[in-house]
Amino acid sequence: MTSVRDPKGVGQWARGTQVPRLEAERRLRATYQVLQLLLTVDSPHVARAWLIGMNPQLDDEAPADVIREGRLREALVAAQAFVSGG
Fold it and tell me: Tell me: the pLDDT tens digits for 53-66?
């Protein structure tokens, strides 16, 4: 979702030896916010499936893809609809 090609970069972010670009950080924060919202009503398994599955709120795009494209608000709105049962 961050568009990082080398997974080592993510490990460096986690260890604090590198700082993600601003846009990558925004995507990570949005993903965290969406997942925390989903976890208020369902299991981690369902939250993961929601994130990678086709979503009718997003014209059958996967929320993970929408986040990667920088459409963070759309992903959050779709998560809110899921949580509210819509």
Answer: 999 999 999 999 99
Task: Give the chain's domain count.
Answer: 1
pLDDT in tens, 32-60: 999 999 999 999 999 999 999 999 999 99
45 occurs within a structural domain: yes
Q: Tell me which residue range forms the domain holding 25.
A: 7-83
Return d(Cα 39, Cα 41) in angstroms, integer: 5
Residue 1 inside a domain? The answer is: no
Is residue 2 included in any domain, yes or no? no
Long-range contacts of 2-11 (CB under 8 A, 24+ apart): 2/27, 2/28, 2/68, 3/27, 3/68
